[in-house]
Design brief:
Elements lengths: L3 H8 L5 H8 L19 H9 L14 E3 L2 H5 L14 E7 L4 E5 L10 E4 L4 E6 L2 H11 L4 E2 H8 L4 H16 L5 H11 L3 E3 L3 E4 L5 H8 L8 E3 L3
Antiparallel strand pairs: 1-2, 2-3, 3-4, 4-5, 5-9, 6-8, 7-8
Helix pairs in contact: 6-7, 7-8
Length: 233
């Protein structure tokens, strides 16, 4: 497996302490004990996932149905698309979506001494998601409780009380990340993950005393939040 030192050298970037801690604890690797490519007879869902479920790595269930952490080797070998202006914009990728978008640290900018997280879309735009890695984790885990698409959750959990099965997996994610996140974020997530489940026409949600957007504004808001910029040549 690629080492943290190799990643820092390749991308000319010093990772924040939280990322380093999670990396060393094997919390940033969704392939624990396995290497890509898998043997022909094995799949991630059937062979890798069952070994991760009870002690999940970062955002395994709470990252969203289309979210996936890049493995250390994938980060090391990441090929930047030709159309990205990598001379002007310095991205350090760490996750992707099923649609082909990328989450990355943005080295060009610092907020309170830390690099923000951006979501790089397949088109020519990138969006500021959080001012640091800890806030990104909190945001993703909180957003996992709202507008939960029924088709996605039925595909993963079936139609027999799937929201409670999903809740159980969220709580496993929360348990595994608790030693690493600040207490204020953990308390908010605990309260939200244990809230009443709402069954709506096309989606589920966990009831909250505040709108999700208001919680985010009170906890992780910063001047560049949700702003977009052009990152291509």
């Amino acid at each position: 497996m690629a080492t943290l030192e190799q990643l820092e050298t390749k991308h000319n970037f010093t990772y924040p302490n939280l990322y380093k801690t999670l990396f060393e604890a094997d919390m940033t690797n969704w392939m624990r004990g396995f290497e890509l490519p898998l043997e022909k007879s094995k799949t991630w869902a059937d062979d890798v996932y069952p070994t991760l479920k009870e002690n999940p790595p970062l955002l395994l269930h709470s990252g969203g149905s289309d979210f996936e952490l890049l493995t250390p080797q994938e980060i090391l070998d990441f090929t930047f698309p030709d159309e990205w202006d990598t001379k002007e914009h310095h991205f350090i990728p760490f996750a992707k979506t099923a649609e082909g978008n990328t989450y990355a640290f943005y080295k060009n900018v610092e907020v309170d001494g830390k690099n923000p997280i951006v979501h790089i879309w397949q088109d020519d735009e990138a969006e500021y998601i959080a001012k640091n890695f800890e806030d990104f984790i909190f945001r993703k885990m909180l957003e996992a409780t709202d507008d939960i698409d029924k088709d996605d959750i039925h595909a993963d959990y079936g139609k027999d009380n799937p929201i409670e099965l999903y809740r159980a997996d969220l709580l496993l994610d929360l348990k595994s990340i608790t030693p690493y996140l600040n207490d204020a974020y953990i308390k908010i997530l605990e309260k939200t993950y244990n809230a009443e489940a709402l069954d709506m026409l096309f989606s589920y949600a966990f009831k909250s005393e505040q709108k999700l957007s208001d919680i985010l504004k009170e906890t992780i808001d910063f001047d560049l939040m949700d702003e977009v910029f052009d990152h291509e040549k």
